[in-house]
Amino acid sequence: DVKVTQSSRYLVKRTGEKVFLECVQDMDHENMFWYRQDPGLGLRLIYFSYDVKMKEKGDIPEGYSVSREKKERFSLILESASTNQTSMYLCASSFTGTGDIYGYTFGSGTRLTVV
Amino acid sequence: QQQVKQSPQSLIVQKGGIPIINCAYENTAFDYFPWYQQFPGKGPALLIAIRPDVSEKKEGRFTISFNKSAKQFSLHIMDSQPGDSATYFCAASPHSGGGADGLTFGKGTHLIIQP
Q: Residue A38 is part of a domain; what is its CATH number?
């Protein structure tokens, strides 16, 4: 089975801290994504990457950056955490195929609280 | 932002009933429509997906109905069971086959199947 592993299930950080959320996938997927999930708002795409060192902004990139130095690892960085970034963060990966429908595999999420 | 509108926000159905969750989209470039199922404490998992060249797809007790002209699609769960209680997300993407642009998700439906 494809596994997407997020390093922390729960994090509590202080306002202004620099926060790193790590995600690793073990199936050689080209594409990796970071979403945040909030009640009533569903899942919103923050950033995605389709190759090593490549990154693209999603719908809500403000206040975030990402890093993808290795194919299997995609990191989300909160440069200066704020309370409105308290959320569930979900990492996902996918394979770029043709002709068939491939799903996105999600990690179990990191619940971040900024105090 | 390309939207996917999902309804209802929450749904309670008796065991054996057929819950129906509806989604509508605007972007005619969307050509991949997956449904994800999320249990508490877990990331979303791909349940079933459809492309617009078919009007219906069944996998076990789960059926997607697709209406291309109306730009609507829906999920039906036959013979629903308490174990189907979860949050369901519809999504859409302009790329079939797992494109790198990221899925646009609906806001989710919290489904409860009562015994």
A: 2.60.40.10
